[in-house]
Amino acid sequence: MAGIILHQLEISPFCDKVRRVLAYKGLDYAVHNVPMADLGKLKRLSPVGKVPILELDGRVLHDSSDICRALDLHTPQPALFPQDPQARALVHLLEDWADESLYFFEMTMRFTWPYDRKRWVSEILKYDNALMRRVARPLVPYLTRKQGTAQGLARRSEADILAELKRHARTLGTLLDDRDFLVGESLTLADIAVVSQLECVAGSGHGLDLLRTVPAILPWMERVEALTGGSAIR
Prior knowledge:
The chain is an alpha+beta fold. It has helices spanning 13-24, 64-74, 85-111, 117-124, 130-136, 139-151, 158-175, 189-201, 205-211, 217-227; strands spanning 4-8, 30-33, 53-56, 59-62. β3 (53-56) and β4 form a beta hairpin.
């Protein structure tokens, strides 16, 4: 049995983040693509019951941030964090911004807006049987919108959401002005976390068009992708 096993939803940005860290560190691993119908069974592995879950040399890890830090301890080079304490703090803040803010943009745009919803609902259900796909197809957008409404973003109009996302994109472009990476001179977990979310944003036609309006973003994404396994979601 492989020493590292990743249990994942293939199109999850958090699973993508873990895959990119594994690729960056050159680690071999096996993948278990979890059908939506089997998500409840994950509690046998982890009390959280959500993906990603990583089996790492006999340990069971959950939460993408915790997994990435465990992998950085397991295989210290190439490092995910700079040595400077202030730079490390900035990496942490940018990762958290990606996970806790950008995530709701990509989720709302991919799964609740009509333009790309059919494609992404089909993708998230592709490992399920025909009955589950038929039953869950209308439920995925409903449950996604319910989650986004509770968080707040999905209560807003499409125009407001795109305007807010554009502000985020312009801020990111400012950070990348004359720089190859977000923090310091080399790739960090901040780059990986933000790219994993923006890959999903770019999976929406509206999202990709918006990212193209900030010249620094797509070349930076390509730099990160070249080091971490390529464009995995778009």
